[in-house]
Automatic annotation (TrEMBL):
GO terms for molecular function: cysteine-type exopeptidase activity; dipeptidase activity. This is Secernin-3 isoform X1. It comes from the Eukaryota. One of its GO terms (biological process) is proteolysis. Belongs to the peptidase C69 family. Secernin subfamily. Transmembrane segments: none annotated. InterPro entries: Peptidase_C69. It comes from Betta splendens (Siamese fighting fish).
Length: 418
């Protein structure tokens, strides 16, 4: 299967309007896949405990941070998410000279969740992910079937101060710090000669494979990418279009800007077809430590016909029931070997209602327009409410404990009205 999925963006001052970092991602996945939005509170663990990821167990840490995740409902990890320290991570599939057809290990999506659960800064997440990568490796099918769809991973990671781009090839990796401006990634290597951290054996390995002569300036993307870039045309086009869209609003990038980019279909960023934008995320992170960050998630396919709903980390958050898919426990076909012998129904409550509405939008133009207007009005109302907390802060945190779930309920009510 040709690479054809995902775009991740980050904008930092001075490219943003005000002292905010804006993070965004479209998760582009198989069109029949359900993406859920789930919350896990912080937890303490005893010595020697393990955590079961999608395919393998790894050693658990003494404490994990609270996380909110947007993830394909069949696996343990996540395509994107944030933690209570306002670290955000999104991953991309990348292909290069090194084969990605290894044994089952950690998926890139597992590494996203592990990084969020264990790191309180963006640079700390780079360290967490690379240590796990070197210890356990990456590998295994990234689709809920027997297709053997495998890839390496790149990650865009941000916090309240900076962002990091981390790109991997097998257990080897390079990382670049982004201190200001904007950056976007698609399904191709993009770290070139500015490398701020790296696997200690990365250059030596490339030289041993004949990919680098050991004398010319080391360029990670050139050395580790395919010799021919024909396979990367779609990703390259989306990357260039995304960069243009960011540049167009440079100095004035807001949450609305990022949402508009994620909704853009002409660029291919909002994907249609066999690979579809199944979930979207936009985070607004103030550089002021005293102010809360707001993380918006759709939990539904196609951001053009979805509502970005806000989530804020406060104490006493309840499970996000309306966007949590059914659990099948040890009987899940993903857990049984041979894997993927069947596909259970993973649709959550919001997904079911959204699916019906999407069909109406497609088949009844006037009614569809009205529904879309309702959705945009709700989104605008929610965002206006969030703007207030950026100036006033939060006086009563408990009022925001069910913010996301309440917003989902309002969305479903809007469907009913239409």
């Amino acid at each position: 299967m040709l690479p054809s999925s995902c775009d991740t963006f980050v904008a930092l001052p001075p490219s943003t309007e005000g002292q905010f970092i804006i993070f965004g991602k479209n998760s582009d996945r198989p069109c029949d896949e359900v993406q859920e939005v789930v919350y896990f509170p912080a937890r303490d663990y005893g010595a020697g405990e393990k955590v079961e990821c999608t395919y393998i167990e790894v050693e658990q840490v003494a404490h994990t941070y609270a996380v909110v995740l947007s993830r394909p409902a069949w696996l343990w990890g996540a395509e994107m998410g944030a933690n209570e320290h306002q670290v955000c991570i999104g991953n991309e599939a990348v292909w290069g000279r090194e084969s990605a057809d290894g044994d089952e290990a950690l998926l890139g999506m597992d590494l996203v969740r592990l990084g969020l659960e264990r790191a309180d800064t963006a640079e700390g997440a780079v360290d967490v992910v690379t240590e796990l990568l070197e210890k356990y490796g990456q590998g295994g099918s990234c689709m809920e079937d027997e297709s053997g769809f495998t890839y390496h991973n790149s990650f865009l990671i941000s916090d309240r101060r900076e962002a990091w781009l981390l790109e991997t090839s097998g257990k080897y990796w390079a990382a670049e710090k982004v201190a200001g401006g904007y950056r976007n990634i698609s399904n191709q290597y993009s770290i070139t000669t500015k490398i701020d951290k790296e696997h200690p054996g990365m250059r030596e390995y490339a030289q041993s494979k004949g990919w680098w002569d050991g004398k010319s300036q080391f360029n990670f993307a050139t050395v580790y990418s395919y010799a021919t870039t024909a396979r990367m045309e779609a990703a390259g086009s989306r990357y260039c279009e995304g960069k243009k869209l960011l540049k167009k609003s440079n100095g004035h990038i807001t949450a609305e800007t990022m949402m508009a980019i994620l909704r853009d279909k002409d660029s291919g960023i909002n994907m249609e077809g066999m690979f579809l934008t199944t979930g979207s995320m936009v985070s607004v992170i103030p550089t002021n430590l005293s102010l809360p960050a707001v993380h918006y998630f759709t939990a539904t396919p196609d951001p053009e016909r979805s509502v970005f709903k806000p989530f804020i980390f406060v104490k006493h958050i309840n499970a996000l029931k309306e966007t949590t898919s059914p659990s099948y426990g040890p009987n899940d076909p993903v857990k049984k070997k041979p894997r993927f012998q069947s596909k259970p129904d993973r649709k959550h409550e919001l997904f079911v209602k959204h699916e019906l509405v999407a069909a109406i939008i497609d088949s009844h133009k006037d009614r569809g327009t009205k529904i879309t207007e309702f959705m945009r009005e709700l989104e605008k109302k929610l965002m206006t409410q969030m703007e207030k907390i950026f100036s006033d802060g939060i006086e009563e945190p408990d009022l925001f404990a069910n913010l996301f779930s309440r917003s989902v309920q309002q969305e479903m009510e809007a469907y009913n009205k239409s």
